[in-house]
Amino acid sequence: QPLLQCKGLRKVYPNGNVEALRGVDVEIFQGEYVAIMGTSGSGKSTLLCTLSGMDVPTSGEVLYRGKPLTQHGSLDRFRALELGFVFQSFYLLPTLTAIENVQVPMFEGPPRSSAEKHQRAHDLLERVGIGHRANHLPMRLSVGERQRVAIARSLANEPKLIFADEPTGNLDSRTTEEILAIFANLHETEGVTLVMVTHSADVAAHAERTLHFQDGQIVKEETNRT
Ligand code: ADP
Ligand code: ADP
């Protein structure tokens, strides 16, 4: 059974009558690393939003472990506990240090003492290679370090599935490789399931499988050589 699945997903934005998704079928299995690749405006963000329950499709259904997303209790809680998110522009809280940012989602997770939260956040920062920057504010970090903090934060509640929306969109090529290496490591050594949206063929090539997206539809699917 796929971890996440959608069938005939359609999304029409009422304003402007844009049909952003025009019948999309996707199956993502536990432990997979999948890239969704397409040009700007092809509907990648819309797909990611509907797959993760942040937006409601006009028709079609998203199933998580074979059950509609809407039957997993509160969607907010479902997202906080089962999913992790990494964005192009990081979305770190500017007044919190790196380690405090990583702890933010833990308030929705299983009860932990503040010492446990702190230790766990520190371990997560170590896992992405910036334990030594734990007490810095985001503005004191390089963009690559900020994305590492965001990745550590996405792991706060041990999600089954991580969505990354253009995670290297604001990074130079060297930093892009570093961040992609972290994703590859999480995938290979910890079996994290990853869905990454990108407009870049080079970035998509790091995934196991690429879904090519065009005008709201999957036009091609390929297995990548790694
Ligand atoms: P991508 O992520 O591939 O750039 P999007 O999913 O953001 O594509 O957009 C797909 C299409 O839907 C575009 O034509 C975009 O302008 C339109 N669109 C996206 N979000 C909205 C919205 N909230 N309201 C109206 N149109 C939207
Ligand atoms: P990105 O591709 O970097 O994720 P976008 O520029 O596609 O971001 O969209 C940013 C936000 O604006 C999204 O929440 C999207 O739904 C919204 N949006 C995109 N296009 C439109 C549009 N034509 N009308 C209204 N909202 C839009």
Automatic annotation (TrEMBL):
Its EC number is 3.6.3.-. Signal peptide: none annotated. The keyword Nucleotidyltransferase does not apply. The keyword DNA repair does not apply. InterPro entries: AAA+_ATPase (IPR003593), ABC_transporter-like_ATP-bd (IPR003439), ABC_transporter-like_CS (IPR017871), ABC_transpr_LolD-like (IPR015854), MacB-like_ATP-bd (IPR017911), P-loop_NTPase (IPR027417). Keywords: ATP-binding, Hydrolase, Lipoprotein, Nucleotide-binding, Transport. GO terms for cellular component: membrane protein complex; plasma membrane. Transmembrane segments: none annotated. One of its GO terms (molecular function) is ATP binding. It holds the Pfam family ABC_tran. Residues 4-226 form the ABC transporter domain. Belongs to the ABC transporter superfamily. Macrolide exporter (TC 3.A.1.122) family. This is Lipoprotein-releasing system ATP-binding protein LolD. The gene is lolD_1.
